[in-house]
Amino acid sequence: MKLVFVTAEADPFVKTGGLGEVMGSLPAFLHKQGVDVRVILPKYSTIADHFQKEMTHLAHFDVPVAWRQQYCGLDEMVYQGVHYYFIDNEYYFSRPSIYGEFDDAERFAFFSRAALESLLHIPGFKPDIIHCQDWHTALIPLMLKKFYSQEPLYYPIKTLFTIHNLKYQGVFSQEVLSDIVGLGMEYFTENTLEFHGAVNFMKAALLYADRITTVSPTYAEEIKNPYYGENLDGLLRKRQDSLTGILNGIDYEVYDPMKDPYLVMPTGNFAYAKKENKKHLLSVVGLPVRGDQALLAMVSRLVDQKGVDLLVHVMTDILALGVQMVILGTGDHRYEEILRYFATKYPENLAIKLEFSDRLAHEIYGGADMLLMPSRFEPCGISQMIAMRYGTVPIVRETGGLKDTVIPYNNMTGVGNGFNFANYNAHELLFAVERAVEIYQEDKVVWETIRQNALKGDFSWDRSANAYIKIYESLL
Questions:
Q1: Are the beta carbons of 72 and 88 closer than 8 angstroms?
Q2: Segments of the chain assigned to CATH 3.40.50.2000
Q3: Is residue 372 a contact partner of residue 399, using CB atoms and an 8 Å limit?
Q4: Coil, strand or helix: which one is 233?
């Protein structure tokens, strides 16, 4: 089996969120399972210099972008046994930002076509399956059928498309269809790429990919309904026989509390190590060490999806419980400003770090007592899995992958690894936090049971990677 991932990001080269995290760990795990897996991604100028120096130039060629021919270089690097190929075009990818550019439609249409063209220039490798990720590569299944179906190298290739977040679909003006993608108006209909008068890249993959997956079983069911379906629920219901939800995993070597270099103390003696890591975290973020106050944390983009509006609505009530909180992340300006306000008002209870810091994220997972994820929707969620790996108890809303991974604690059975609330309501979040804090403060035996339940969870790639392998085999 020969497999190629095409993705806009992959850790450690570029990562802005869950997509980069998954594309950094899943290919490496599949490689260890004996799969011949390769990865194609853009050669962004933001990739660290020491990686760029290790790349070898394989080829250069022209790539059609509708009526234009654009230069493309192809560089290669082997990392953790996996061959990575980088699509090089400085006009498109020498930018300060990965996404959010005025010409994203052209940038990622070029990248998709270049990824297909590059298959001609990889020596000794002919893929059986192209596994595409999110809207940035969603044109590939259509391009493969439209532009390459008569080519001997290409026509046996099957395609799999994974939805990491249905909210981001790559919706652009109608002109993009002919001027960028190079398709005629027969593809601008309700049954093709037309979407409320615009062109929808993700719709191309939902229509033309051989199989579709998303990143948790619950999310696969949710997106077939209007509330979560982002106006594509009808199409997803039509393709439900080809749609599978597979839970993401995390890299147990990167997130290993016994060996994590960012922790001041590995978790051999767990209870003692947790206290020491907590003290260190409080000193790092500038909060006082006050006996055994519960320390809550949030590691997240500060956007509507993540439930930040719920949190700020009851922030005063939560802090009144006698807890401390640290929040790490960046996002919408309005949320950053209101969190700054709360941090100024409660300087001994709340610390806000408006940045992206891998080190601080690890320190938070290792030192916090609880992790908040009150998401409006959550395709999978990785933070709650990492938190449990470090013995940090999650408090989540029951949606998507959060529902699949966090089992609410039941005091009758002793089963459960966290705390959940069902409705998207600020006071339900508050009640869940109140219950968790009450147990933490008043019943350390029960709290230790919950924490041990969290530590026993298996969120490695073992199960999920095998589920992907079964889909690959079914395509062949």
A1: yes
A2: 2-249+461-475, 270-456
A3: no
A4: helix
